[in-house]
Write a structure and sequence with these properties.
Two copies of one chain form a homodimer.
Chain A (H helix, E strand, L loop, with lengths): L5 H30 L6 H9 L2 H23 L4 E4 H6 L12 E8 L1 H6 L5 E8 L2 E9 L4 E6 L3 E4 L3 E2 L19 E3 L13 H13 L4 H4 L6 E3 L4 H10 L4 E5 L3 H14 L2 E3 L21 E5 L10 H13 L13
Parallel strand pairs in A: 1-2, 8-9, 8-10
Antiparallel strand pairs in A: 2-3, 3-4, 4-5, 5-6, 6-7, 10-12, 11-12
Helix pairs in contact in A: 1-3, 8-9
Amino acid sequence: MADISQDELDDIYAFAVNLGKEAGSMLLDAAKLRIGDNRATQEQKEHVQKENAVDLVTETDEELEAFIRKAIAEKYPLHKFVGEESYSKGASRDYLIDDSPTWCIDPLDGTVNYIHLFPMFCISIAFIHKSKPLVGVINAPFLNQFFSSCSGRGAWLNESQQLPLIRNPIPPMPEKAPSGCVFSCEWGKDRRDIPDGNMHRKIESFVNMAAELGGRQGRGGMVHGVRSLGSATLDLAYVAMGSFDIWWEGGCWEWDVAAGIAILQEAGGLITTANPPPNEATAPIEAVKLGSRLYLAIRPAGPSSTETARETQERTVREVWRRVRNLDYSRPGA
Amino acid sequence: MADISQDELDDIYAFAVNLGKEAGSMLLDAAKLRIGDNRATQEQKEHVQKENAVDLVTETDEELEAFIRKAIAEKYPLHKFVGEESYSKGASRDYLIDDSPTWCIDPLDGTVNYIHLFPMFCISIAFIHKSKPLVGVINAPFLNQFFSSCSGRGAWLNESQQLPLIRNPIPPMPEKAPSGCVFSCEWGKDRRDIPDGNMHRKIESFVNMAAELGGRQGRGGMVHGVRSLGSATLDLAYVAMGSFDIWWEGGCWEWDVAAGIAILQEAGGLITTANPPPNEATAPIEAVKLGSRLYLAIRPAGPSSTETARETQERTVREVWRRVRNLDYSRPGA
């Protein structure tokens, strides 16, 4: 597989940005229709009243994915396409991303938020080559927040503010991290009340991160705040922005995180696995496998007086690993 | 104490809206200065680099409260003023709101978010008369979301979209609430790892609300999503918007919630106490006491085929009370 030049990548980026804007505007229109915006036609209004919220969302999801897929197929007929909707309906549950130039799309991340019209929902578009997310576009139209990045071109909020936002200088991770950090995590869909199930492992981990220093048999992390937004994609965007210091999650699929990883890495963030390796204090900290479903993200950081930027991030990774449980998420069929 | 006419209230509302806009723009300027916005003067940039984030926030907080306080004193010299900053520095820890016309202000809610530049921070301005919040203004300038309400005039997002957003018709609370509901809750600052302390009582309640139906000895609520934003004020705004169905919290002060309660009640929401009364299944559901520090909010609802709107809300209150623990927050000196 040939390399992609910066010129080609810039073209792909420009295309992805435009596509993200068009799709975002369609998504906002669909949301406004549910609000009962006056510009809706009588036919549209009747349609919205007839269907229930979940059906409407599925419809919006499928329409958006079809729109994005068609636009990509027209512009880049040789590129592969992996989207949430088409994956769910496909025969294979395998990890579909290989070395080929591939688009990985979530037409609507934060579905529950969208159903309830909580603004934390978005479109997520990533371009991946040789298994590396190189371009990321996240459009949260109800928030007026548009995140984008291109390898070699920086990561941006609304195409004007470079990420991370605080960058003159970019602060190191706090000396006593996770203390002083905003910790982002999600309750997810696996709510089975079984002893040592994922829900209870997550809660135990959350409580360790939150509890006072010295509490929880020395595991208390006393994070500055615990946040749950209900969108993995936006969690990653806010880590790239520097607003969240740490995001720890299991269960996501590649379309939930591909664009966010592109943006985070271009901004200088680190992403590795959620599950602590056996020798957590010394194990090498490797970049996450996109299809692993287990993610730990650390915000972009600068050097401290005694550590490199990367060292402050790696120290934080180990301090998180020390406080969290292994989660049990695998790929169906894997 | 004389009643306030709708005309007087409309004037107060117009004044509060303008004040919220001016203060919001000051807050956004202060945030942009920390981002290193190019328009900052050299002197401003040096100041930002010299101070640490927490000092800068305290400074912004105090400046904003002084600005708001002065504007109110000039326009309404006979009205009382209760603000977070002035309360914290004052001698009394008593509940300061009585029957007088009173302004209750939080110049910066979501302080941790503001420090980390996570957009969920806001200014909160309430006008209270005879202990009832009658006017509410919440400005979240980094989100471009401006919430406002005036008793008798409706509750609004960005002065153009009436709250709740979905209103043709407004849906009843879900039949199996809390299942189907977005549940908003906060980890808060009390992280003491003591058996049966507030942190553990909260977590037990959160897990009950989240767990599968049938789980947790029948207490599993299987909510549609659990959200934590780190701003009580914005939690209430999103309940008024209809995005969050349920918000349950202890520990807030009156300035954290006064504007949100005004907006929520004007939108048709219900707010009562977080702590289940002894006879939770039959106890009368009373409007919350503003100074109680214990809050349970239910979104605006419409009638179902078998219940009035209020009945669907009250049913939800009782289902929440059945799943949550009493929290231990009192007023210092109370």
